[in-house]
Specification:
By secondary structure, the protein is an alpha+beta fold. The chain has helices at 25-35, 40-52, 80-99; strands spanning 13-21, 57-58, 68-69, 74-77, 107-125, 131-147. The chain has 3 helices and 6 strands. The strands form 2 sheets. Strands 1-6-5 form a 3-stranded antiparallel beta sheet, covered by helices on one side. Strands 2-4-3 form a 3-stranded antiparallel beta sheet. Strand 3 and strand 4 form a beta hairpin.
Length: 150
């Protein structure tokens, strides 16, 4: 399992990974923290709500000037671009679980992580022979789901 941060896989589980997604690291960390431990069906509903901007993601880190949202959410945002990347990840792991003949209605997220990938370095030419840096961090996303017994 080269590239995954989890060492051992549980029995009756499925994994998936998205490499080098062009999303915000701060948004990805907060979405991963919010989805960890939830059933896969609930995670799909949450991500659809974030994309529609009806369900905010509560932020636990990187809170500087993050406004509170309606309800009992606290500080949160609607990171649509990162939610679309996580939606692809969740759909991939569901397809992998179905291929391994797991019951997709009883899947629970046991591990989900967002980590830094490679950095794309670009330079913008400026006046008097100078150059301005335009660096972009890409993000790696990974998920492990486990089939829960009824």
């Amino acid at each position: 399992m080269k590239g995954y941060s989890i060492k051992e896989l549980p029995e009756r589980s499925a994994i998936a990974r998205v490499k080098e997604a062009d999303v915000s690291m701060k948004d990805s960390v907060n979405i991963a923290h919010y989805l960890r431990g939830k059933p896969l069906t609930m995670a799909k509903e949450i991500l659809e709500g974030v994309i529609r901007k009806t369900h905010p993601v509560p932020y636990f880190r990187y809170l500087d000037s993050v406004s509170h949202r309606k309800g009992k959410v606290g500080p949160g945002r609607y990171p649509v671009r990162a939610a679309k990347a996580f939606q692809d990840l969740v759909n991939n792991v569901e397809a992998n679980a179905e291929f391994k003949s797991l019951d997709t209605d009883n899947l629970k997220i046991v591990h989900i992580a967002a980590s830094k990938g490679r950095m794309v370095k670009k330079y913008t030419p400026k006046a008097y022979g100078r150059a301005g840096a335009n660096f972009k961090d890409l993000i790696n996303l990974e998920i492990v789901v486990k089939e829960e017994s009824e």
